[in-house]
Structure formats: C-alpha cells, structure tokens
TrEMBL record:
Stored InterPro entries: Methyltransf_25, SAM-dependent_MTases_sf
Keyword S-adenosyl-L-methionine: yes
UniProt KW keywords: Methyltransferase, S-adenosyl-L-methionine, Transferase
An example Gene Ontology biological process: methylation
Domain Methyltransferase: 45-136
The name this protein goes by in its record: SAM-dependent methyltransferase
MF annotations from Gene Ontology: methyltransferase activity
Top-rank taxon: Bacteria
Family annotation (Gene3D superfamilies): 2.20.25.570, Vaccinia Virus protein VP39
Pfam families in alphabetical order: Methyltransf_25 (PF13649)
Amino acid sequence: MKGYDAETYGRAIAEDYDRRFADRAAEASAAAAALRRLCGSGPALEIGVGTGHVAEALAAGGCQIAGVDSSEEMLTIARKKAVRNLALCRHDVTAAPFPGDYALVYCVFMTFFMIGDNDAQKRFLRFAADALAPGGRLVLETFVPMESRLGGWTSRVRVGDLTAESVTLVASRIDTEKQVLENQEISFRDGKVELVPAQFYYHTPAQLDEMASAVGLRLAQRWSDWSGGEMTADSPRAISVYEGSSAAHGTSR
C-alpha cells in the first residue's frame, strides 16, 4: 500500500483503539489465561502490545511482561494505564533482536501478518527464536486464509457500521498470488472523515510452520480458539504454539 509503513496503523487508530475494541475484554482475558499457563513463572514478551489489552490482563495475574510496539502513539496510551508488572518500550521487531530471555513470546490479534513483508516476518521469527529461554514458546494468533473468504475477488467495498448519523465503509484489495491483503476503513461521523489503513502479508498454517522450522522452532500445539478448541477445515483463525530448542537458541547473536 503506497505510503504505508510500520507506524501507519497505530498512528491512525491509537486514540480510538480502546473504544473500537471495547468488546475484546472477554477475549483478552481468555487469551491471558491460556498464555499464563504457557508462561509458567517465567517472563513474557508481547509483540505489538498496542494499548495493552492482553498484556494488562496477563500482568494482573502476576506475570512479568515486557511489551513492545512500533507505534509511539499506542504506547503513550498504554503507559497512561500504569499497569504493574508491565514494562513498555518502542522497538522495531523486524530490525533488531529483543534483549533478554523469555519463557514466552507472543503476538496476538493477527499482528504477525501486519509487522511487514515476508522478509520482515522471517527476521522477526529469527529474533523471537533467539529471545526464547531454553524450552520457551512462541505463540502466534493469525487468521486462516480460506478460499471462501478471500477467493473470487481482487477489490471490494463493504458496509460496516451504519446509523442515521454515521457510516463506516471498508475498501479492500487483495493479491492472492503474493498473499497481500490491504484494507482502508473509512468512517464518516460528526462531520469528519477518518481513515484507518491496514496491510496484511498472510500465510496458511502450513506456511507458518515452514517459516518457523527455518529458525529452529517446531509446532507443539495449534488451537482454533483460546480455550484450546480443535482446528478444523472451517476454523477462521489459528493459535499456533511453537517450541524453541537449545540448539537454535542464540544462533544469530
């Protein structure tokens, strides 16, 4: 998407993010419960922490959490919450390693597909593998690209919220060969026009496994939801749990 970079999404949505996703509280709580079981007593690192929905819930249970994001606007809002056990910093997860050794590194709400192109995602996976303590786990929550949802069109406009005073449209463009999905959410309300662009470089679960394997990670579990539901051919999302190995740890440091 022309003019889009790692900070565009956060810059566009940060001020309104918590209002837009107020209904995520239950999902964030379920995610935190599952992540807490994986983390045990070790520290955890959230990639794309945003305004802190999941990290806040996880930290409330006593886990030490480090949260990084490319958006200073998102982090500014997260810092105002002053959550105990949660340390926040700005970090480009595709350009530099993460300091520290973590029992758990996680990236939720489809953020992995938003952190950059294929090369950037591969760099992120390498840094994530190196940041895991021996026996540590990496968790990725992603949507599953299915033909029924993404096939048969190259561009479209859908109607979102619609009231007598406002309307939200979502303009989308997809390149199924390159596996790139671009969205522009256009909201008309209070006499203003608001734009929230998003860009996804997506992969199938099998492709994710191949990328993870290349950096020494192996698939340990895969769920359809945070309660550990079984994946089926119709599951719209995948929660993938990868395990590191001592042999892979530190190879690019």
